[in-house]
Design brief:
The protein is mostly helical. The protein has one domain (about 1-160): Hypothetical protein af1432. It contains nine helices and no strands. It has helices at about 1-15, 20-35, 40-55, 60-65, 70-85, 95-105, 115-130, 135-145, 150-160. α1 (about 1-15) packs parallel to α3, α2 (about 20-35) crosses α7 (about 115-130) and α3 packs across α6. The chain is globular and about 40 Å long.
Length: about 160
């Protein structure tokens, strides 16, 4: 229930920006699939799905404030915005803190700790590779160096015909 409520809030928050709306929904779908297939515990699945929906919450602000959506600004501004949005849902502090951490690190590929973090990186990349029309050598490199879950690797191979 909470995941759907946050999804609805994020669609409204995106103010009709179809790119942003489609991106967050696609990342959420991949995250949900990977998390469920990898057998995440319920609370970890919830943190993953919430982070997938909120990971780019700062993009509209960054476009206005900085004129771009570079990773560092997205992570810094996103953590603040995610905490504010989630605080209105009556969630446990531990869940909010984890989601805020994930949003604040979703472009940081070093020192990935936790399956929710790993899967968020994989789900976001699955979508970004398509949206950015990334070349096959880049996709293969990510598969070999960053992707760790069996489901994420299988999806990457299937989607990009590797």
């Amino acid at each position: 229930m909470i995941v759907s409520a946050v999804a609805k809030k994020m669609v409204e928050f995106s103010e009709g920006n179809l790119h942003d709306i489609n991106h967050l929904l696609k990342v959420h779908a991949y995250a949900k699939i990977i998390g469920e297939c990898e057998g995440l515990l319920d609370e970890v699945q919830t943190s993953l799905e919430l982070a997938a929906l909120l990971h780019d919450i700062a993009c509209p602000l960054c476009r206005i404030k900085y004129g771009n959506t570079n990773a560092k600004c997205q992570q810094e501004e996103g953590a603040i915005l995610a905490k504010g949005l989630l605080s209105g849902f009556g969630l446990p502090d531990s869940l909010i803190d984890r989601v805020v951490y994930l949003v604040g690190h979703h472009h940081t590929l070093e020192a990935i700790k936790g399956l929710d973090y790993q899967i968020l990186i994989e789900a976001d990349y699955l979508v970004n590779a398509d949206e950015g029309k990334l070349p096959e050598d880049h996709i293969r490199h990510m598969m070999e160096t960053v992707f760790k879950t069996k489901t994420g690797i299988a999806l990457l191979k299937s989607v990009y015909r590797l």
